[in-house]
Amino acid sequence: MTTTHSQIPSEVLVGSPLTHRLVDANGVRLHIAEQGQGPLVLLLHGWPESWYSWRHQFGPLVAAGYRVVAPDQRGYARSEQPPDVTSYTLLHLVGDVIALIEELGEEQAVVVGHDWGAPVAWTAAMLRPDKVRAVAGLSIPPILPGGMVPPSITRTQYGEGFYQIYFQQPGVADAELAKDIPDSFRRILVGASGDNPLSTEPRPLVIPDGQGLLDTMPESPALPAWLTEEDIKVYAEDFALHGERAFTGAFNWYRNIEYNNELLAPFRGRRIDVPALYVVGDRDMVTSLRDPDRPGSSLSDVAPRLHGPVVLPGCGHWTQQERPAEVNTVLLDFLGRIDGAMSR
Predict the structure, then answer these.
(1) CA distances from 341 to 56, 58, 238, 322 (A)
(2) Which of 89, 164, 174, 227 lies at a 20 to 30 A Cα distance from 254?
(3) Which of 1, 31, 3 is nearest to 17 (CA)?
């Protein structure tokens, strides 16, 4: 069944309507938003977001002649939340992407990911270049083969208070964020924004002993220009569908980082050989993190056909929401280089 969403920015509604439906892919039921016709572009959100984080990208991509699909990934928002923690490995997540491409009746897709969606996109491109004809990552660079540096390393680098270590404790962060879902979104989205007046230079997020994640993100007196109360409401209502487990599926992604590095060890040394793009804000906390396994490596070593990196001044972690015009321009230029001057 296909339905329309009542809370869609008017800029999205270009040509054919943006529609929503549920699809079965890789053994899990996923909610997807889709619009347009043409070559498929899959947009993969990050933590703690949903398809809605791409609301500003639909219109321009559809107008350029692409079929755009943004799922709520497994465990998030309106999609199914498998109960087993080990159902959230990168192999499961990449499997969802490949199955979704096939379920949509397509042979290939350009896959674009932000935050956690980026490791899924990078890994899909590494493992299945026959299905992923090009890849773009926002915020998170390609850290192959496991997607992220494992807790056994980050614990030594940043201590027990590092946010990814804090997320490893079953039920703890889950309960903290589910207590007041709208407030959690407001604090997190403002806290990691590039124009948060309370922030300083990008630095690793380390939670002081005895505090929680939200304690590190004081309530801001005002929302940044790119974020509205309506945006927060959309996120909060969709996550609330899972009740007390509103954020549990999302946190389970973090609880598999170590396991991902074990599972993908046979692919160590593999590169991303399809055309690639990396975009990051210069005020994104991710820019302060280090990968001790690759002290002298460059992005071009991992992705030889990389365009960029493109660095957005003043932009924080929510790349495509904070800087939609710049991101759309970069994405369309990247797609244009891949597809040529297509007449649409």
Answers:
(1) 23, 20, 39, 28
(2) 227
(3) 3
Structure tokens at 61: 């991509």
Assigned CATH for 10-339: 3.40.50.1820
From 66, 123, 131, select the one nearest 257 (Cα to Cα): 123
The two structure tokens encoding residue 73:
């990934």
pTM equals: 0.94
Look at residue 333 in the predicted model and tell me its pLDDT: 97
- Does the annotation mark 115 as catalytic? yes
Helix/strand/coil for 227: coil
What residue ranges do the domains of the chain occupy?
10-339
Q: Are 342 and 37 in contact (CB under 8 A)?
A: no
Residue 273 to residue 133: CA distance in whole angstroms: 9
Summarised one tens digit per residue, pLDDT across range 187-212 is 999 999 998 877 768 899 999 999 99
Q: To 10 degrees, the CA torsion angle through 191, 196, 201, 202?
A: 40
DSSP state of 163: H
Both structure tokens of 277: 């793009």
Digit-coded pLDDT (tens) for 291-307: 766 655 689 899 999 99
pLDDT (0 to 100) of residue 292: 67
User: How far lies 145's CA from each of 126, 127, 236, 342, in Å?
Assistant: 8, 9, 33, 34
DSSP secondary structure string, 5-31? -SS--GGG--SSPPEEEEEEETTEEEE
Hey, what amino acid is at 119?
A: P
**301 belongs to the catalytic site:** no
- Burial bucket for residue 252 (CB in 10 Å: 0-12, 13-18, 19+): buried
Q: How far is CA 129 from the centre of its chain?
A: 20
Q: What is the Rg, in whole angstroms, of the alpha carbon atoms belonging to the chain?
A: 19
Q: Quick one: how far is CA 157 from the chain centroid?
A: 24
Q: Which of 72, 96, 115, 174 is catalytic?
A: 115
Contact 41, 109 (CB under 8 A): yes
Cα 246 to Cα 279: distance, rounded to the nearest angstrom: 29
What is the CB neighbour count within 10 angstroms for residue 297? 10
